[in-house]
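Reopening this ticket.

The earlier resolution said the output was attached, but the attachment link was broken on my side. Pasting everything inline this time so it's all in one place.
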Amino acid sequence: MRKIIAVFCSIIFFTSCQQKNEKIETVSAKDTVKTSSNFQMYEISEMAALMEQMYAYNTQLKERIANNEQLGDYPVAFDKLHTAILTDPADRDAFFTEQAFKFITAQKAIYADTLLAKDNFNKMVNQCLECHSKKCGGPIPRIKKLLIP
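Inline output:
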């Protein structure tokens, strides 16, 4: 048994001590190191950032409506929906333009008649769903959470 252990230990010893042929690169201050990387950091588009802001704002607005609190004023930053740069500029077509107009109208209706704020809010959310059902369906489950029961 001792012989087996001794052979096993010597195999481990000799294999672990072998010098590896790794190329070690030294760089001096004069040298320029060029590295290529396929990694690209995702940058959110202006439109995606705006939609994130609209979602966050409307989440708070939903709570204010549910608690019968003051709604405040229509956020004019939402008007950038017509001009914000999209992730894919080809998506700005007649359908998008029409849906953007309908969304802005629905969002403004919430503030125009506070007695119907809940109904108008849900109409606005449904307008989001209508557009996203045709283009960029990813956020649909998240948007549905905005509906006020």
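Reporter confirms the inline version is readable. Helices lie at 2-16, 46-66, 94-112, 117-134, 140-144. Residues 21-32 have pLDDT under 50 and may be disordered.
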